[in-house]
């Protein structure tokens, strides 16, 4: 059996999925051309690492499609040296990209950030700190952050995460709106914070962010 040519697949991902779809930050392109995405998915699914769909992981979780990751990072406009909170780090692919871009990353996830063989893909990464906690709770001890990236789609942003943004801080996330996942960006100014929809885009749904149900009498 012929082994997959991951370098060629990675180059094709960059040219055919990213450059053609508004992923135009040269640092994002460089990081995604360098970091081996196949190292962050189960061995049995490595051949799927560069397809334009989510890659299943464990416990019902999945890795975002490459385009979703590229657009999140592009809209976040992360600068070298900035403190970034990554919510929903999973096996660590986006954390590795942020580290390659020179960010100081705090990565948080409920799922212990483990690959199927029980080893962490994140722990050896320079510039990445693993923080215990819940997705919706973030990692306040390491804040405030210049940027918060929620690596998936959620129903609403918890106030606890907004509080961890520094003044002028940015957030990039996916939002679920009437069954559609949309990329959204926001900025904090004083006590004010709001999100603006950027584009409809396929994203994985993160657990733990359901909007409280209300009853109408």
Structure description:
The protein is α/β, with parallel strands linked by helices and 217 residues long. It has one domain (6-200): 3-Layer(aba) Sandwich (Rossmann fold). Helices cover 21% and strands 28% of the residues. The chain has 5 helices and 9 strands. It has helices at residues 6-18, 26-34, 66-76, 93-100, 159-163; strands at residues 55-56, 62-63, 83-87, 104-108, 128-131, 145-154, 165-177, 180-189, 192-200. The strands form 2 sheets. Strands 5-4-3-6-7-8-9 form a 7-stranded mixed β-sheet. Strands 1-2 form a two-stranded antiparallel sheet. A hairpin with a 5-residue loop joins strand 1 and strand 2 (62-63). Helix 1 (6-18) runs antiparallel to helix 2. The mean pLDDT is 89. Keywords: Methyltransferase, Transferase. InterPro entries: PCMT, SAM-dependent_MTases_sf. It comes from Sphingobium algorifonticola.
What is the element layout, followed by pairings?
Elements: H1 6-18, H2 26-34, E1 55-56, E2 62-63, H3 66-76, E3 83-87, H4 93-100, E4 104-108, E5 128-131, E6 145-154, H5 159-163, E7 165-177, E8 180-189, E9 192-200
Parallel strand pairs: 3-4, 3-6, 4-5, 6-7
Antiparallel strand pairs: 1-2, 7-8, 8-9
